[in-house]
Write a structure and sequence with these properties.
Rossmann fold, about 15% strand, five-stranded parallel beta sheet, 7 helices, 5 strands
Length: about 160
């Protein structure tokens, strides 16, 4: 018996075989998606396909697995680190979602930050979708239009104390 997955096997018992035979589609391998990929792989998922069009940037290093490979295509680099992972290097857009065949996949994991594509995914595969709603590229909550219009706490404190 392979000891690598002994803990997962002890929790799932006979269902562990289902996990090993699962076919997962992971959309986006940034901050959420790269960690998700690692967890899926270490849990014993049999087949994982990853989709993203991005390359690693130095600013990714505080939150993305594999990001030491600055300048490399994320999906290609991650596929080199995780055996049996199939990379698709493409931009996920609503039109891509419409044209893509999701039927071979048991579960679709949405870890992208493009709202129109995220909505298209939800409409197309809601019955087998897990979706993450992160805060990527939203580092200015006082100016981002989709956030509550809250005043910057430091600025409010400075005004209160007449600084």
């Amino acid at each position: 018996m392979d000891e690598r997955f002994s803990r997962v096997r002890s929790v799932l018992e006979h269902d562990f075989e289902k996990l090993q035979n699962a076919n997962i589609l992971l959309l986006g391998v940034g901050g959420v998606g790269s960690v998700c990929l690692d967890a899926l792989f270490r849990t014993g998922i049999g087949r994982i396909t990853i989709v993203d069009d991005d390359v690693y940037d130095i600013t990714n290093q505080n939150r993305q697995l594999g990001s030491e490979a600055v300048g490399e295509v994320k999906v290609l680099h991650l596929a080199s680190l995780y055996p049996n992972v199939t990379p698709i290097h493409t931009l996920i857009t609503p039109s891509w979602v419409e044209a893509f065949d999701f039927s071979p996949y048991d579960v679709v994991i949405d870890a992208i930050d493009d709202m129109p594509a995220k909505i298209a995914i939800a409409h197309k595969v809601s019955e087998k979708l897990l979706s993450s709603s992160g805060s990527a590229k939203k580092n200015r909550p006082h100016t981002d239009s989709h956030r509550l219009n809250l005043e910057n706490p430091r600025r409010a404190l400075a005004k209160k104390n007449a600084l």
